[in-house]
Amino acid sequence: MRVSVIGTGYVGLVTGTCLAEKGIDVTCVDIDQDKVDSINRGEPPIYERGLEELLKKNIGWRLRATADLRTAVLQSDVTMITVGTPFRPEGVDLRFVEEVSRQIGAALTDKPDYHVVVVKSTVVPGTTDGVVKPLLEQASGKQAGDGFGVGMNPEFLTEGEAVSDFMVPDRIVIGGIDDRTLDTQSRLYQGFPDVETLRTNNNTAEMIKYASNALLATLISFSNELANLGAAIGDIDTVEVSRGLQMSRYLSTVLPDGQRFLPPINSFLLAGCGFGGSCLPKDVAALIAHGRNHGHEMSLLEAVLSINRQQPARILGLLGKHFSDLAGKRISVLGLAFRPDTDDMRESPAIPIIRNLLARGAEVRGYDPIANDEARKVFGDSVALCASLEEALGDCDAVVLVTRWREFETVPELAARMNPPPVFIDGRRMLDKTNFARYEGIGL
What we know:
Elements: E1 2-6, H1 10-21, E2 25-29, H2 33-40, H3 51-58, E3 63-66, H4 69-74, E4 78-81, E5 87-88, E6 91-92, H5 95-108, E7 115-119, H6 127-140, E8 148-152, H7 162-167, E9 172-176, H8 179-188, E10 197-200, H9 202-233, H10 238-246, E11 253-254, E12 260-261, H11 280-293, H12 299-310, H13 313-320, E13 330-334, H14 350-359, E14 363-367, H15 372-379, E15 384-385, H16 389-393, E16 398-401, H17 411-415, E17 423-426, E18 439-441
Parallel strand pairs: 1-2, 1-4, 2-3, 4-7, 7-8, 9-10, 13-14, 13-16, 14-15, 16-17, 17-18
Antiparallel strand pairs: 5-6, 8-9, 11-12
Helix pairs in contact: 1-3, 5-6, 9-11, 9-12, 11-12
């Protein structure tokens, strides 16, 4: 089977590379010739753990990149749309989806063989059938279900873990307008024989994606709201509250050897300084706007975003317990990406935290194992970006941990050598509070 993937962002490039690794002939398409050239050299234009190795292994063999969308569509059996869907106040911006739908449809005009177009971009329910399908029909002059099929195949990729998420998925969801479309997608994923697959219609497939992200965002804000209440009451540690929850049979199970197994969902029940990234904030906001457009207020999800917007300010409150004035104070911020194992800073809590520190006159330095270059684009020269963790910790008044990078597990040992010891603000409750002379944390 031959597949063309339109768009080479996190979703598109990971999808194309991993499908090639599974034996599919893949052509990735992007309008940015620099990206195309980089991919063809085996150099991914984004950082994603494990991606470069797979790209180098498959490029020039089962994988290639091009700016020629028309030829890519004509020479493939399936086209996957993986372009961006940014959020605007009125809802999801579909301009990129609409444009490539027209281009794909125009290419299908000259294709005699049956072709399946699959939307993999995250779009609100009703988009594939109500927007993409009519544009394909109009541009091609053909009827969906006759000359071509239209499906929806949501991605469930976590940045930093996207390659492993794709190669070892927990589920595959495929939507389609008819059995032929669904059967074609089933063949596309025949390299995943042991993965449970749900076949459904396009609207339902679209909703499953949003429901998945909305649930995770809700769990995070739920945990943060309880952590903030516990801190206000006093003598309550949210870490111990989380452990008590995790002992529930609803959230964990005890294995025959007596060890307790915690499913990954528990990581979203840990309090912190808020969620970010390109998915959770955007998708929750999009679902709220989509509900409003259909006359349905999404009050719970509105609260989820409201809590999340306020959470970075908790860091400033914790610093305020030790410094009446931050002017001139040297503050080191550890972790700039929105989560570990990625360089993506979109909606990262580090951004409002650092901007608030700068507004209060603090001297801010930052360190991230991967995202320093992205941070320079955001902050320019206003933040001193350090080349190492040791440099970041040197001669500072306070340390703020924002991202759960594994490297930061060495912070207690490094901080113990500092005299006087800095105030340590644990924005993720990642480290043991007893290892620090002066420690503050979310939900403590």
